[in-house]
Design brief:
The protein has 18 helices and 14 strands. The strands form 3 sheets. An 8-stranded parallel sheet has the order 1-8-7-6-5-4-3-2. Helix 3 packs antiparallel against helix 12, helix 9 runs parallel beside helix 10 and helix 13 crosses helix 14. The chain is of the alpha/beta class and 584 residues long.
Length: 584
Amino acid sequence: MKTTASVPTPSTSGMPVSKYRAFLDTNPIDLPDRMWPSQRINAAPRWMSTDLRDGNQALIEPMDPARKRRMFELLIRLGYKEIEIGFPAASQTDFDFVRSLVDDNIVPEDVTLSVLTQSRPEIIERTIDALVGLPRATVHLYNATSPLFRELVFRNNKEQTVELAVNGTREVIARAEKVLGDETICGFEYSPEIFVDTEPDFALEICEAVMDVWQPDSDREIILNLPSTVERATPNVYADQIEFMSRNLSRREYIALSVHPHNDRGTGVAAAELALLAGADRIEGCLLGQGERTGNVDLVTLGLNLFSQGIDPGIDFSDVDEIRRTVEYCTSMTTPMRAPYVGDLVYTSFSGSHQDAIKKGFQARKAQVAAAGGKEEAVVWELPYLPIDPHDVGRSYEAVVRVNSQSGKGGVSYLMSTSHNLELPRRLQVEFSRIVQRHTDTYGGEIDAATLWDIFADEYLPTSSAHGLTPWGRFELGSSRVSSSDDDRVELHTVVRDNGNEIQLEAVGNGPIDAFVQAMHSFDIDVRILDYAEHAMSQGRDAKAASYVEAAIDGRIVWGVGIDPSITRATYQAVISAVNRALR
């Protein structure tokens, strides 16, 4: 055998990499004494759902009013207290939707609705007019601040960009004071749009200028939202930018520092979490990561990440399938099968080694919960490959293990236990998993619980076949009766059908099993029991029992299985099962 100290790696890709520059070469941030790496998230942030604004504007077909209402109702049920509901000045449809929520009086007193506006007087006026009558509202003003947008898109210099933000803030204050009554608690949010590409010192300057107008204090909060409008760097860079702002903003105690990560590089969740470490108080995002391009940060993933660490997210994620169904209906977008926490396959293992670990984990947890008096919450969740309990988010354990050609005895035995109440002995697990492996190698694809039962029944229960299977096997059990003799032995009287012919058998043994084995010797078949196990499959008057017998039949070692309301007859069935399989 040879060893190596180096492995071949790709050389040049041939792609035009010279077109691009490293982000830190275009907008450097120098924070050598950063504190965020040593911080820890201990509580949930304030959440703001922008599903009805950012999420909606990114759809091929934006939501109609009925779908918007259904999304709004879902967000309320889940427990979101800040919801951005649109851009009322963008269209009559958006304006009318905001007014419908007011007119129908369906906004809870403790829920704040946010609306977005550009820094233009006529747009600000229309936007704030839509809020009249709401219990709580936030006006969200934004303007683009990065060099590319200043110079290329709007042809503004820094002074003009600051003036636009300041004038917009003044317009918001003036219009809100004019049209909003005392019944409305009005807040203010400002976003230096394209924050991540904005020079840190200039981002600080424009936010300070806006605060000079708004004048935040203990009764007059300001939300400063720092969006990663297009994710262009690693999450640690965003964290540095957030910490820089959090450290250097004046009046910090009156600021709700908010982040709005997008997912262009696939690290929106990580960016949001590191931003919390860096000082962010509030996160804006969408359910299931809806939004422009690759989407806004996923509020479900963020919330359940906290939940998995023992931190209450403040949002009810106990039925993730309802969330998914509603979002898919409202957006006409599908959810990937691997989407964290909500995808069809995220709690599923096909690998044999994974399945075996999960099975052992469930067995250990069952014992721990029983020792804790049946109190689930008294036992810390520690299961291989399952970061949270699927039951906690409304999923069953049925799909935790699924069987295909990659599966082993752990997955097979887990499904037989959870779907069919059969606790197969270990050596029987090994034997049956090989049978299943042959099936998957021959036919391919996945084996569901029903198909697995068909394979099992055809192999081990031949004379009581599953639906659609043809009975097979030389022997079949008929009636049976046992009685005790004076010398503590039992006498067995039974009928066994041999290829359909009823044979009356009598035998004496140390117990019912031994007597039945002696009876089978009448057919000139050598039967020796090597191992035996039994258990009830359920409780109650209609309960059945399962028996498992490992036997040497004429020198061949095989397993047999019997199922019957009588544990004794189930054992006879298991012996016949083993004999039939040996003679097959």
